[in-house]
Amino acid sequence: MKITLAQIQCIAGDIDGNVAKIVEAAHKAKASTLVIFPELSVSGMCPAAMFKTPGFVDKCEQALDKIAAECENIGVLVGCPVGKFNAAVYMFQGQRKVFKKKYLEDSERGVFEPSDEDALLQIGCHKYAVTIGRDLKNTNDDEFLLQNRMDELMALKPDVIINIGAEKCGVNQSKVRRNTLRQNVLKHEIPLVFVNNVASKKEATYDGGSMIFGYESYVVASAPFFEETVMDVNLECLISMKHEDEQQDYVL
Question: CATH number for the domain including 185?
Fold first, then answer.
């Protein structure tokens, strides 16, 4: 089984442009079972006021119909506002399933609502726990227990964790992020797929660095920083026994 990490630059408010990039990237990965895009990839990471603008969220949801029509035979997982939720939407051959973010950033409160719905994405014999951004961060500030969304979803027995994000760059940010995601893998003992928004290094906003962790918590496949990339990965890499990370840190 092959999945694709679509690390694309999603521009705030440019729904048409973002949809065009999503469709283009999906068609580059026709042989994949699942093409995964960043958090809020349809809308971009917009200012709170934009999400409250009348008709904006409706337009984002309408854009999902265009993606579904143009990628009918390609399984895609895209980030999009759905109603009052920051969501990840899976679409394939008329199917549509919505996964909603639970643990919101401070900037999202008042714009989105948290969700307590527990469900997995099942494709064939694989079950994926779909999480968004802060869902995998340490929401209780407990460095050792790392209480987060996966503590609730593990009861459903997922095979793989997916986290779509819009993580910004910063000093040591790549190292901190990798360590946080690695702790999730170590705690729950299943592989993890992370897909991030990206911008050029000149813009110095979202840094990319999408990656996959194998069972032993090492990065077994990674996308470059500050570059748009559509990367196909065979799930066999998730059982890799490598003892060295493939991803290197960047310097600002």
Answer: 3.60.110.10
